[in-house]
Fold this protein.
Amino acid sequence: MESVLKELKQYWGQFVSTDIAKAFQNELENFERWLKDVGVKLLSARAREAAERGNPVAKDYPEQYVKGLVRRGQAKVLVNMFAAYIVQKGLATQYWLIRNKYVAGGESIATWLRLLRKIQ
């Protein structure tokens, strides 16, 4: 999964310029460490879930599935994972993040939060 972290790093510059990253700038260093530990497990859980739903790429090539997910979502993947991280840490609520337009919708955050509960 080292290649997945490299893929995420490509979009880090875009991510840190987003409103949510600027608003919670003091958490970026912690989030980066969290990505290396929990983020990789979270992305693996996302691939397992897709495989269970019948996605053949996720089943046979989970790392490629995750890299494709990151490529398609680019910085949005990091934004949504960061939003879930913030909610999990108790720094904000999902509703507050949506209301203040830090994220577009709640379903992405909800997906990451659900997966976080599964892996913990």
The two ends are 19 Å apart (CA to CA). Residues 2-119 form one domain. Residues 29 and 72 are 24 Å apart (CA to CA).
